[in-house]
Amino acid sequence: MKPDILFHPFQLKTLNLRNRIVMAPMTRSFSSNGVPGQNVAEYYTRRAAGEVGLILSEGTVIDRPSSSNDANVPHFYGEEALAGWQNVINSVHQAGGQMGPQIWHMGIMDNHHSGWTPSVPFEGPSEFNRPGFANGKAMTESDIADTIAAFGRAAADAKRLGFDCVELHGAHGYLIDQFFWEGTNKRQDQYGGNTIAARTRFAVDVIKEVRRQVGDELALIIRLSQWKPADFNNKLAKNPEELEQWLTPLADAGVDIFHCSQRRFWEAEFEGSDLNFAGWAKKVTGKPTITVGSIGLSGEFIAGFQGESSDPSSIDELLRRFDRGDFDLVAVGRPLIANPDWAKKIHEGRDAELKGFSRELLGQLV
Ligand code: FNR
Ligand code: 8K6
Hints:
Layout: E1 10-12, E2 15-17, E3 21-23, H1 38-49, E4 54-61, H2 79-94, E5 99-104, E6 116-117, E7 137-138, H3 141-161, E8 165-169, H4 175-180, H5 201-214, E9 219-225, H6 240-253, E10 257-261, H7 277-285, E11 289-292, H8 314-323, E12 329-332, H9 334-338, H10 342-347
Parallel strand pairs: 3-4, 3-12, 4-5, 5-8, 6-7, 8-9, 9-10, 10-11, 11-12
Antiparallel strand pairs: 1-2
Helix pairs in contact: 1-2, 3-5, 6-7
Ligand FNR binds at residues 24-27, 58-59, 102, 169, 171-172, 223, 261, 292-295, 297, 332-334, 362.
């Protein structure tokens, strides 16, 4: 099968994508004092010029305590940072690209593990169930209300600056995800509960507030994962029924696209079917989905940060699943760090020219 099938437009609300390739959100920490500069604008613009259909920004944090304590992670608030983002989106648009910010609150996952989180102490087999994480601060109802409002403000700013969509970071054990898990959300109020459906309340309120701020037309994506770092084996939804209980309230609240984070896109999510996470999310919600995870990577490099070579062999399997309609868009991470023109080279059959990813590349903005 030829990659051409990925090079068809995708239209949904404010999105008018030239193809199905998405740049996965990737933290790069090059924004001094939270302000994305000209170097960051040029980095994203090179991907737009390289024919990426949709660029999702690195996680960019909302205006609340402990949203991040890395001084080089970009903010999505404040005059200077927003002016920086205005420059980014103008430049990406000029190069023919489309882009949305991934808006983010780290919660307890900030560097000191002392941030806001649904509840402390944690229980259960959890990445967070470590001594260092005991210093977190359980959010009060007013902290929660403020945080929901801050997500809404960030989305409104994204719309005002002219971004084409917004992505909520609801994956990988950060704040929104901390509300989903039983081990990290022991709340007894309306934001907690014994079922996964009950624990979607925080995300649902964030989504509703974003919708209230931006209206119906701006495309809204949420990124979700079944895993958290260091706890890869404990899945959030154990079966399709739980998946439905988790995703349906989010879809009903106003999500347009589910971005389903997997480390390897070809891994089946549940027994009895080869559908991956994005495949199942599409099946249970009827919404478009984005898949991701080791696309175009090979060897040791797969689902790890090691390895040297980039080999598009897994692309055949990706195309087979895409052709079957399992998902609508495909996100690519590390290969796009190494090759700003990854999409263009795949389109033109110039795979042999692709460079491999290596950790050293993270020290610069290629
Ligand atoms: C990531 N990833 C990530 N995910 C996310 O939702 N927000 C983020 O800010 C980041 N940051 C980040 C930084 C770096 C350096 C890497 C390598 C990854 C995860 C990323 O979006 C993607 O899901 C994975 O990299 C898997 O895709 P690939 O690299 O196998 O194509
Ligand atoms: C400059 C130091 C950067 C260190 C790189 C690690 C980045 C961590 C990002 C975590 C996000 C989850 C990773 C997704 C899994 C991909 C395959 C393991």
